[in-house]
Amino acid sequence: MKAVLKKVTPPPESSFTVRKDVGENMRNIWHFHPELELLFIKKSSGTWLIGDYIGPFQSGDVVLIGANLPHSFRHEDTFIREQKGQSGEAVVALFKQDIPSGTLSAWPEMRKLTQLLSLSRQGIKLEGDTCRNVASMMEDLLVQSPGSRLLTLLQILYLIAESGDYTLLSTESFNFDPSQHDNQRLKTVIEYTRNNFRSKLTLEDAAALVHMTGTSFCRYFKVKTGKTYVRFLTELRIGYACQQLIDSDKNITEICYDCGYNTLSHFINMFKLITGKRPLEYKSHFK
């Protein structure tokens, strides 16, 4: 599925966009935009896809999505339908990276903020008190003057950066830099793996694609992505398994084979390694 470029135009009096989406307005397709997106799910639940991450979201969640990172949110119908007291709500802020960084990136006090903006290329989910505080501040954005709104946005980003109270969502390999030397080889491997992870794939298959030995390829892939090829393949398979557990009526054994695994015990072990839960626990937790 090809991601669609979405155009964002801030109002004349502001350098970035803040809006409240309700009900039907929360619908979206697989898309991307050059702006970073700070999203507070005030009332809704469903499944979100951010890069190659697939997982459930619920009311109170806050995420920071980096520039040009494809994403989509599948809300439950209850929150999409326009019903009094039932419709979902979300607060969205869309801003360009040079707004919070710009010349500030040269200041040592802003080093953590610069690192945060870089990490946002993987998608960031806030946790704990930081999540709750940012959610409250995002509601303030809706009623503030343009100047106050900009200061609040900077405060939000600084709070996230300083607290470190967040988790990364998409794998680093999803966000390779196409300007880097020989990244076409990496792109070839990643696209091939995404298209064929449900089949019997081996490290040797991937190495052969770029005419490398298994040992050389292992070292190359780890340097480029920060993880082993086997880990990358496992994350793809388990991400697909999560989606099947949520969206289909298939049993665990069917999903196991559908993901490319040959034995149920190995599938369950890998699922728990990636998600921290066994498949049935994951499905029960989501419901």
Task: Please characterize this protein's 3D structure.
The protein is of the alpha+beta class. The protein has two domains: 4-168, Jelly Rolls (Sandwich); 175-286, Orthogonal Bundle (Arc Repressor Mutant, subunit A), CATH 1.10.10. 43% of the residues lie in helices and 17% in strands. The chain has eleven helices and eleven strands. The strands form three sheets. It has a six-stranded antiparallel β-sheet with strand order 2-9-4-7-10-11, with helices on one face. A hairpin with a 2-residue loop joins strand 5 (46-50) and strand 6 (53-57). Helix 6 (203-209) crosses helix 7 (214-225). It is globular and about 60 Å long. The two termini are 26 Å apart. Residues 176-181 have low confidence and may be disordered.
Structure in a nutshell:
This protein is of the alpha+beta class and 287 residues long. It contains 11 helices and 11 strands. The protein is 43% helix and 17% strand.
Q: Roughly what is the average pLDDT, rounded to an integer?
A: 84
Q: Unreliable stretches, pLDDT < 50, 5 or more residues?
A: 176-181
Main β-sheet, spatial strand arrangement: 2-9-4-7-10-11
The portion of residues forming beta strands comes to 15-25%
Secondary-structure element series? EEEEEEEEHEHEHHEHHHHHHH
N-C termini distance: 26 Å
Q: What proportion of the residues is helical, as a percent range?
A: 40-55%
State the total count of DSSP E strands.
11
Assigned CATH architecture of the largest domain: Sandwich
